[in-house]
Amino acid sequence: MNKKLFASLVVVGVLVSGMFGGFVKKAEAATVTIPVGSTFFGDIWYNSYYKVQDSKGNTINAKTTTSTTLTGTITMTNNISYGTVSFVDYDKDAKKIYKVPTSTQAYKTASTSSKLTAKNYLGKTVNVKVPAGNVMTKINTYWTKDSFKYTDYVKVKGKWIKQTKTATIYVPSKYVKGYTSYFWKKYTKKRTGYFFTPVKNGITLEEYNLLRDGMTFGMSYNAVVTLTGEKMILTSKSSKDGHSYKSYEWEYDVVKDNNWIWKWVLLDFKDGKLVFKHQSGLY
Questions:
Q1: Which pLDDT value is given to residue 77?
Q2: What is each CA distance from 32 to 75, 165, 234, in whole angstroms?
Q3: How high is the pLDDT of residue 132?
Q4: Which class for 174: exposed (0-12), middle (13-18), buried (19 or more C-beta within 10 A)?
Q5: DSSP string, 113-131
Q6: Which of 147, 103, 162, 146 is nearest to 128 (CA)?
Q7: CA dist., res. 134 & res. 188, Å (int)
Q8: So what's the pLDDT on residue 76?
Q9: CB of 130 within 8 A of CB of 105?
């Protein structure tokens, strides 16, 4: 891919998140393995970590549930590697539940001629009532049922002794109300996860020349980090007239083989877009 075409693709990627999906190519196989519990990015531009919901519906960073072997790097920037990740996510689901809104008669079978009765402490026969709020299972258009515990008295040696019994009881559907209940259902999912694996070669002149500035096509800071593989130092931050301003610097200063090597890059951002860049010593 020549440099001019590459720069054009960078612009498209900044304008539309995820547009590079069609251009991602597998590079030489990586040997890096990411451990369980690692966060990952959802796109190649070093944006925010991929998000999921927890069991209570809170938005959190997704974390890998198995170790992940990175299978390649992005051809546009070798600072981002990718692999298939497994992670847990909760999706909001709905189910219908049926409750008895007010106390009503229980039946032994799906027939109104089969009332469930019991004895009270005086030995008198009474109807068994299903209390308000009892959850029922709908079995057809006309009937619901439940495994139900109720109190009965049995005469033992002339005394009425209290017992707890369990029976499958039935209640006509017309006495039951349906409610929609929402819950968070757990899923184990897979997708392509992207990881920041920077090549430790500093910022090169070639990478610098690909950094697009200007309010129309200016790159974000995250896009700059993705392309160069280098995080920079925030040297100033301000706001004025509804606009935000940030300046970042990157410096390489070392003496090697009695030679002083110094490289420096200055980047200015307005409202999150690169509007000015300057360098010294890059090659």
A1: 67
A2: 17, 62, 30
A3: 97
A4: exposed
A5: T-B-EEE-TTS-EEE-EEP
A6: 103
A7: 33
A8: 62
A9: yes
**What is the rounded CA–CA span in Å between residue 272 and residue 217?**
11
Cα separation, 126 vs 118, whole angstroms: 6
Residues of the chain short of pLDDT 50, as ranges, are 1-30
> What Å distances lie between residue 220 and 34, 69, 204, 232, 259, CA to CA?
27, 29, 18, 13, 34
Residue 139 CB neighbours (<10 A): 12
Q: Are 15 and 39 in contact (CB under 8 A)?
A: no
**Is the four-CA dihedral 224, 221, 275, 277 of positive or negative sign?**
negative
DSSP state of 156: E
Distance CA 209, CA 10 (A): 12
**Partner residues linked to 277 by β-bridges:** 267
Domains and CATH numbers, the chain: 1-89+185-197 (no CATH), 101-175 (no CATH), 200-283 (3.30.1450.10)
pTM more than 0.90: no
Rg, Å, the chain Cα set: 34
Rounded distance, CA 33 to CA 50, Å? 19
User: Measuring CA to CA, how many Å separate 66 from each of 83, 90, 117, 250?
Assistant: 12, 17, 56, 36
Task: Provide the pLDDT for residue 42.
Answer: 92
Q: Are 171 and 127 in contact (CB under 8 A)?
A: no
Quick one: tokens of 283?
């090659």
Confidence (pLDDT) at 26 = 35
SS3 content of the chain, % helix, strand, coil (to 5): 10, 50, 35
Query: Taking Cα atoms as reference points, which of 35, 2, 25, 12 lies closest to residue 80?
Result: 25
CA distance 203 to 41: 22
